[in-house]
Amino acid sequence: MCTFNTLLLPASTSLDRVNAVARELGWGLFAAQGNPSIEAAVADALSYVRADGGCDCGSGLATADTTPYIGWSDGEVRKLNADGWSATKIERWKAQREAARAKVANPAQPTVPAQWCTLLERLLDGRIAAWVGVFTHDYRGALGSRITCKPVQRFSGVTVGRLSAIETDVPYVFAR
Ligand SMILES: [Zn+2]
């Protein structure tokens, strides 16, 4: 099971322009996800995920840490627990990761909701899309598999606070 954050855009949006912004912000490029359930839930929407094939486990918007990254995340710890690591071994691993993180000159990275907020704001402010949307889901099968979406939530304006409160399986649409 893997988590993916989907980017939703009006069908007429230029993916090249979106990817130019994504590249500038240091994101991987987006490619069509083509999930019929998500695209049916939001009128005129096409769905995209990052093209590098990597999942968003540990950085799913619905489960993302809202604290700056200190070398480990709650999602990573959950995975180690699931892998059968002992509490002692996990504490030692955390201490090593925090020490390694502290050595990196670059201060704490922006949180996942903050990164998404920057991307979505750029797409709206740059008039690359009239609205933007996000959708987070834990996939059991293919990225195109059938999903039961909850009712769409619409907002004018995108904020870190709103992105930090995202729930799984709810399509969120933000307009200017
Ligand atoms: Zn995964």
Main beta-sheet strand count, sense and barrel state: 6 strands, mixed
Mean pLDDT over the residues: 90
> Count of helices?
6
Number of domains: 2
In which order are the strands of the major sheet placed?
A: 2-3-1-4-6-5
Structural class: alpha+beta
Ligand roster = zinc ion
Order of helices and strands: EHEHEHHHEEHE
Give the beta-strand count.
6
Strand content: 15-25%
Radius of gyration: 17 Å
Helix content: 25-40%
List the uncertain runs: none
The dominant shape is: globular
Roughly how many Å apart are the termini? 34 Å
Please explain how this structure is put together:
The protein is 35% helix and 20% strand. The protein has helices at 15-24, 36-41, 74-82, 87-103, 112-125, 160-164, and strands spanning 2-10, 30-32, 45-50, 131-139, 153-156, 172-175. It has a 6-stranded mixed beta sheet. Strand 5, helix 6 (160-164) and strand 6 (172-175) form a beta-alpha-beta unit. The mean pLDDT is 90. Bound molecules: zinc ion. The site of zinc ion (ZN) has 3 residues, from loops.
Give the helices and strands, then pairings.
Elements: E1 2-10, H1 15-24, E2 30-32, H2 36-41, E3 45-50, H3 74-82, H4 87-103, H5 112-125, E4 131-139, E5 153-156, H6 160-164, E6 172-175
Parallel strand pairs: 5-6
Antiparallel strand pairs: 1-3, 1-4, 2-3, 4-6
This protein binds zinc ion.
The site of zinc ion has 3 residues, from loops.
